[in-house]
Write a structure and sequence with these properties.
Blueprint lengths: L1 H7 L1 H26 L6 H9 L13 H11 L3 H21 L3 H17 L6 H13 L9 H16 L18
Helix pairs in contact: 2-5, 2-7, 3-4, 5-6, 6-7
């Protein structure tokens, strides 16, 4: 019952939209800062290799596969990382702000938060991860007041015509019907 409210209610959509705007601004802002500066992830990656996340009692590395990935892929390809991280952060933010491909943006935001956490950076990552999970959990309701809410019903109608199906959902044939 609570999840139905969260995924379909218009007031829940308003709350998620406000949350989406905040999280989107955070991602876009940080991505833009990196895009317009001399961002270099090399020192961060070297630090993640030198001091990997470890158990306090045994000092055993908790994510050895991720440390291996950083050492053998990310660091040798730091130029690619220096391009992908800022661009990814910026696009995640834009997607969340305009409500376009909202769930995709939330998913990739959560993925970046996990990657940063596995590397040992706490900062705002747990906070943004929790907010990203809330946005992602709202499903289609997260993009209701954004491009998704406008584009998906039209795409659904086009798809229904192309496949000769009737759209009975009222949501462009995508997912469950959203109440109006």
């Amino acid at each position: 019952m609570v999840m139905k409210f969260f995924k379909e209610n218009v007031w829940a959509a308003v709350a998620i939209t406000l949350l989406r705007l905040y999280v989107g601004w955070e991602w876009m802002h940080h991505g833009w800062e990196k895009l317009t500066s001399d961002f270099d992830a090399a020192a961060f990656l070297k630090g993640a290799i030198a001091k990997p996340v470890a158990d306090r009692a045994t000092q055993e590395v908790l994510f050895p596969n991720y440390t291996y990935f950083i050492q053998h892929f990310a660091l040798p390809n730091v130029k690619l990382i220096n391009f992908m991280i800022p661009l990814g952060e910026f696009l995640i933010g834009v997607g969340l702000i305009v409500g376009g491909l909202t769930l995709t943006a939330a998913f990739f935001g959560m993925m970046l938060n996990f990657l940063f956490l596995f590397a040992g950076t706490v900062s705002v990552n747990p906070w943004l991860l929790v907010l990203g999970v809330i946005i992602f959990t709202a499903g289609a309701n997260a993009g209701r007041f954004g491009l998704d809410g406008y584009v998906f019903p039209h795409l659904g109608k086009v798809w229904a015509k192309l496949t000769h199906r009737k759209d009975k959902t009222g949501n462009g044939g995508i997912g469950k019907a959203l109440p109006h």
